[in-house]
Every structure is written in C-alpha cells, then in structure tokens.
Amino acid sequence: MQCRHDFVEFTAQYSIPKIDVTELTPEYKLAATWRDYLEMCKPRVVLLMLLCTLVGMFLATTGMVPWNILVFGNLGVALVASSAAALNHLVDASVDAKMARTRNRPVAQGRVSNLQGSIFVGVTGIAGITVLTILVNPLTAWLNLASWVGYGIIYSLYLKRATPQNIVIGGLFGAAPPLFGWTAVTGSIDGGGLLLVLIIFAWTPPHFWALAIDRREEYKKVDIPMLPVTHGEQYTKVHILLYTIIMIIVSVLPYLIGMSNLLYLVSALALGSGFLYWSLAMLFGDNPRAPIETFRYSIFYLMALFVALLVDHYLLPVSYI
C-alpha cells in the first residue's frame, strides 16, 4: 500500500501522465471497493428475484404479510442469492475475463482476490441462512440452501460446461424465489407456490437462449456449450419459439385453477403475445438486434407478469387460498 501511495505522489509532483490502472501489474492495481462487492452480488438479478419473492409472499395470504416475514424473509433471500452470485463470479473468473460482457467483473480483473471473494461468499451465505432459520422458518432456509447449492455449485461448476441443456436443467434453481416467499408466509410447500416456480422455469430457456444467440461467438471462444454453439442459431430459435408457447400456456394456469382473476388473464395473454412476437421476429425476420431485444423484453415480461398477479390478487380477490 505504501508503494502505491508513493507512486501516486511521485507522478503528481512531476506531472507524469496518468497511467491507466488496467495496464498496471497486479501489485499496482486499485484495491476493491464496495461497488466491486455489490457487483459480485448481481444486484439487478437479485432485485428481480426479490420481486418474485414478494409476489409469492402476498399471494400466499389473503391479508397483509407480517412485517417480520416481509423484512427478514427478503433480507435472507437477498443475502443467500448474493452469496450464490458471488460464488459464480469466483467459479467463472477465467471465462469472464475472455468475454466482452463480463471481462470487467471484479474477480476477472483481479480487484477482488479468490480469498476475499470466498470470505464474502461465506459471510453473506451464512448470514442469509441464519436470518431465514431464526427469523422466518427452517423450511425457507433449507430451500434457499438447496437453491444456493444448485446454482452456485451444480450449475456453475458442472452443468454450465457439461451440456447444452444447462439452462433448462439449471433453470429450476433460479425459478424458486416465489416459492421462498410462499413458504416464508405459510411454512409449507403448496400448489400455488409450485405453480409460480413453473412459470419462471418455463420462462428461463427463451430468456437466456436469446442472450446466448446474441453472444454466440463469445461462448464459442470460451468453449461453453450453449445451445446456439452446439446446435446452431436456427435450431435455438425454433426451441425459443416452442418454449415461449409452453410459457404462455403455463402463465394462464393461475387463472384456470382459480388462483387469479380476469385482470391477470388479460395481462398474461397480452404480455405473452409480445414475447411471441419477438420469438417469431428472431425465427423469421432479419433484424440482427432481435435476439438482444427479445432478451430485454423477457425481463420486462417477467416483472410485468408478477406485478399483474399481485395487482389482480388484491383488486379482484379469489378464494383459492
């Protein structure tokens, strides 16, 4: 640290041109900041997860979610999800360094060391499980631990590099947040919570395969067997369309089983039509931006769909629960 301080003072005193820190040898690189650790948590992904967790909580009751469940349930889920995301940064550091989308990540750039990252993973993960176990309920804690193992270890270490169906199989681990919210309130695994999981499970392949098409050459360079790399873009686009149709069918199930009402049904069909449009645009159109636009729409789709579930639940209450 003293060497770095002396170096900065020397360059300032003698007006030596500023050097890009990315070109310095590791010992001169800047230390990690709180922003680096925040980035390791994948905050945008975690926020989307928390939205789904919140909806799961509110749909599990006809009244108001108890404040302690609302606060500590989401805090615990956020901590465990952040831990799993940080572990993914550690596992994928060598791959991230070679891809344009991820090469500036803190571990890939060396701003956060493996030891620092491992401590961060451990602290956030243990804190999250402890909060859920003591302040929510053990079932929710166990489900979060299973999801952490599934995403952080099974998917990141094995599935991602083993099969082009990595997203389909691994998608189950990322689809669980609404079930976390449901069990936090009820203390049990029920059909309603599982149906919410099924919606995200069906949404995951077309969501991520669209991004994989846009980044196909990068995945190919790092030898990650994403479907567009192993089977080609056209094959993947067909499967995106098929999964989109499955997703739309699954998305109307809450209405069909009496879990939601007409407002949600109309919203689900309208949002699904938008997703179907982009899937068809990819398959039959010639817009080079269609894959990335499909990916972006898919994020909006999931957010809007779960908000529609929540609004419908309180404006037009049904007797499912």
Instruction: Give the overall silhouette.
Output: flat
Question: Main β-sheet, in a few words?
Answer: none
CATH architecture name of the largest domain: Orthogonal Bundle
Straight-line N-to-C gap? 60 Å
Q: How many domains would you count in the coordinates?
A: 2
Radius of gyration: 22 Å
Number of helices: 17
Q: Assign the CATH topology of the largest domain.
A: Tetracycline Repressor, domain 2
Give the amount of beta strand, in percent. under 5%
Give helix % range.
over 70%
- Tally the beta strands: 0
Q: Which structural class matches the secondary elements? A: mainly alpha
Average pLDDT, rounded to a whole number, is 89
CATH class of the largest domain: Mainly Alpha
The CATH superfamily title of the largest domain: UbiA prenyltransferase
Low-confidence spans: 1-28
Order of helices and strands: HHHHHHHHHHHHHHHHH
Can you characterise this structure?
This protein has 321 residues and is an all-alpha fold. It folds into two domains: 34-188, UbiA prenyltransferase (Tetracycline Repressor, domain 2, Orthogonal Bundle), CATH 1.10.357.140; 190-321. The chain has 17 helices and no strands. The longest helix is centred in the last third of the chain and has 26 residues, at 290-315.
Describe the SSE topology:
Layout: H1 2-13, H2 34-40, H3 43-59, H4 67-91, H5 93-96, H6 106-109, H7 114-135, H8 138-162, H9 166-174, H10 177-186, H11 191-214, H12 216-221, H13 227-231, H14 233-251, H15 253-256, H16 262-284, H17 290-315
Helix pairs in contact: 3-4, 3-10, 3-17, 4-7, 4-8, 4-10, 7-8, 8-9, 8-10, 9-11, 10-11, 11-14, 11-17, 14-16, 16-17
